[in-house]
C-alpha cells in the first residue's frame, strides 16, 4: 500500500543518519507521504484520537503514581492527598479518571465504525484481531485502575469480579487465591492490581504498534470497502489531508473531554467510591463503570454462575471471529441493505444492555437482559446467514469514481437548491 519511499535526505547529517538508522525516513513514510483513501470520513479520526488518549493516560498515570500509596490503609487517603495537596493534583486525577471514559467512548466508536464498514474482512483479519486484543487489555487495565482509589465501589467491584473466576472448574479457586494474594480482597490484592495497572498500558502500547504496523502493511479500509486500484487517483498523502482532518477531530473531541473534566468530573463515576472501603458494609447496588455495563448485563442474565462467565467472555471473544462469521464478499454495509438494518438493531441492543446493566438484577430487568443477550448473539448468527443470500447494491468501480459520483450528486443538489431559491425573484 505504502509503495516505495519518497523521502530524500537534504543535508549531510540526514544522509549520514539515514544510512545508519532511517528513523526520519520511517516517520516521513508513515506520517507524511503515506497514501490514504481520499474518501475517508471523520469516523476514521478516532484511530488517532485513541493513540492520543493512550499517551495521555500513560503520562497522567505516571505522575499520579508518584503520589499514590498502594496500601489498603493509605490508598484512599493518598487519593485525597492528590486531590487536595498536590499542585494541580485534582486536574491530573480528573484527567486520568475521565480519560478512561473518553478512551472507551473513542474505542466503541472505532469498533462500530469497523463493524459497519467491514474493516475486519480480508486482508485485515490480523489487524482486527489485534484490535480485539487491545480492547481486552483496555478492559483489564480499566478494571484494575478502578480498584485503586479503594472506595466502597472499588472494593466490592473487585470482590464481585474476582469471585467470578471461582466458577471455572479445577483452576478457578487457584486463580482467585492468586489474585487476592490470600483468602479475601485485602492489601495483597491492591498491590497486585496496582502492579498490573501500571504494567498493562505499556503492553497496550506495544500491541498498538503492531496494530499500526499491520494497518500500514495492508492499507486502510474506506467507506466504500473498495480496495485501492490506482494510488494516484484513489489516494492522497497522509499529510496534510488526513492530518488536518485528524487534528480537527481531536480538537472537537478534546473540547468534550475538557467539559467533563472541568464541569462534570464525577458524572461518570459513582458516589459510593467517595466512601472508604468497608468489608463489613455492602453497597445497596454494586455496579461497574459504564463501559462494562453491557457485558455485566449479559453476566447477570444467565442464572448459572459458570454460564454467565462464559457468556460474558464469549460476548467479547466472538468479535475476533467476525472475519469468518460474516460470509458476505462486500465489506461496507452501505451497500448491504439487510446487513445495515442488522447493524442498527445490534447497536440498539448494545445500548439496551448497557441500560439493563445499571439496573437492579430483579424482576423484569432480568427477563429483558436475557432477551437482549439472545439478540446480541443472534446478531452474529444472522450476519452469517444473511451473507449467504443477501443481494448487495452495485459497488463503485474505484474509490475515485465513488468520490466523483458523490461530488456530482452534491453539485446537482446545490444547483437545484439555488434554482429553487431564485424562483420567487424570477417571478417577481
TrEMBL record:
This is Cytochrome b. It holds the Pfam family Cytochrome_B. The lineage of its organism: Bacteria, Pseudomonadati, Pseudomonadota, Alphaproteobacteria, Hyphomicrobiales. One of its GO terms (molecular function) is metal ion binding. Its cofactor is heme b; heme. It is found in: Membrane. The main subunits of complex b-c1 are: cytochrome b, cytochrome c1 and the Rieske protein. A ubiquinone binds at residue 216. Residues 228-397 form the Cytochrome b/b6 C-terminal region profile domain. Its main location: membrane. GO terms for biological process: respiratory electron transport chain. The keyword ATP-binding does not apply. Residues 13-224 form the Cytochrome b/b6 N-terminal region profile domain. Heme b b566 binds at residues 110, 211. Belongs to the cytochrome b family. Gene3D superfamilies: Cytochrome Bc1 Complex, Chain C. The keyword Iron applies. Heme b b562 binds at residues 96, 197. SUPFAM superfamilies: a domain/subunit of cytochrome bc1 complex (Ubiquinol-cytochrome c reductase), Transmembrane di-heme cytochromes. Component of the ubiquinol-cytochrome c reductase complex (complex III or cytochrome b-c1 complex), which is a respiratory chain that generates an electrochemical potential coupled to ATP synthesis. Binds 2 heme groups non-covalently. Keywords: Electron transport, Heme, Iron, Membrane, Metal-binding, Respiratory chain, Transmembrane, Transmembrane helix, Transport. It comes from Bosea thiooxidans. GO terms for cellular component: respiratory chain complex III.
Amino acid at each position: 500500500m505504502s509503495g516505495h519511499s519518497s523521502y530524500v535526505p537534504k543535508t549531510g547529517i540526514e544522509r549520514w543518519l539515514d544510512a545508519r538508522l532511517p528513523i526520519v525516513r520511517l516517520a516521513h513514510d508513515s506520517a507524511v507521504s503515506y497514501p490514504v483513501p481520499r474518501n475517508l470520513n471523520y469516523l476514521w479520526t478516532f484511530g488517532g484520537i485513541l493513540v492520543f488518549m493512550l499517551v495521555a493516560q500513560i503520562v497522567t498515570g505516571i505522575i499520579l503514581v508518584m503520589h499514590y500509596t498502594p496500601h489498603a490503609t493509605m490508598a484512599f487517603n493518598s487519593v485525597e492527598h492528590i486531590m487536595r495537596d498536590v499542585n494541580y493534583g485534582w486536574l491530573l486525577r480528573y484527567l486520568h479518571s475521565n480519560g478512561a471514559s473518553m478512551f472507551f467512548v473513542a474505542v466503541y466508536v472505532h469498533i462500530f465504525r469497523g463493524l459497519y464498514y467491514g474493516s475486519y474482512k480480508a486482508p485485515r483479519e490480523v489487524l482486527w484481531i489485534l484490535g480485539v486484543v487491545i480492547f481486552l487489555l483496555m478492559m483489564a487495565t480499566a478494571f484494575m485502575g478502578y480498584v485503586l482509589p479503594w472506595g466502597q465501589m472499588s472494593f466490592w467491584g473487585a470482590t464481585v469480579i474476582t469471585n467470578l473466576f471461582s466458577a471455572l472448574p479445577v483452576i478457578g479457586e487457584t486463580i482467585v487465591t492468586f489474585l487476592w494474594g490470600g483468602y479475601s480482597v485485602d492489601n495483597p490484592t491492591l498491590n497486585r492490581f496496582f502492579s498490573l495497572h501500571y504494567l498493562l498500558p505499556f503492553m497496550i502500547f506495544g500491541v498498538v504498534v503492531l496494530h499500526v504496523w499491520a494497518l500500514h502493511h495492508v492499507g486502510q479500509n474506506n467507506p466504500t470497502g473498495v480496495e485501492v486500484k490506482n494510488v494516484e487517483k484513489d489516494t492522497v498523502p497522509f499529510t496534510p489531508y488526513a492530518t488536518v482532518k485528524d487534528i480537527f477531530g481531536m480538537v472537537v473531541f478534546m473540547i468534550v473531554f475538557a467539559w467533563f473534566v472541568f464541569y462534570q468530573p464525577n458524572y461518570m463515576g459513582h458516589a459510593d467510591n467517595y466512601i472508604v472501603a468497608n468489608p463489613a458494609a455492602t453497597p445497596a447496588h454494586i455496579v461497574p463503570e459504564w463501559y462494562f455495563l453491557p457485558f455485566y448485563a449479559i453476566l447477570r442474565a444467565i442464572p448459572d454462575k459458570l454460564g454467565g462467565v462464559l457468556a460474558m467472555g464469549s460476548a467479547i471473544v466472538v468479535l475476533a471471529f467476525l472475519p469468518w462469521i460474516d460470509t458476505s464478499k462486500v465489506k461496507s454495509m452501505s451497500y448491504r441493505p439487510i446487513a445495515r438494518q442488522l447493524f442498527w438493531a445490534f447497536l440498539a441492543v448494545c445500548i439496551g444492555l448497557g441500560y439493563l446493566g445499571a439496573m437492579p438484577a430483579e424482576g423484569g430487568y432480568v427477563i429483558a437482559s436475557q432477551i437482549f443477550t439472545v439478540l446480541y448473539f443472534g446478531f452474529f448468527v444472522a450476519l452469517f446467514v444473511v451473507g449467504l443470500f443477501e443481494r448487495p447494491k452495485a459497488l463503485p468501480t474505484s474509490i475515485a469514481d465513488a468520490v466523483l459520483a458523490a461530488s456530482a450528486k452534491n453539485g446537482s443538489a446545490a444547483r437545484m437548491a439555488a434554482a429553487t431559491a431564485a424562483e420567487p425573484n424570477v417571478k417577481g
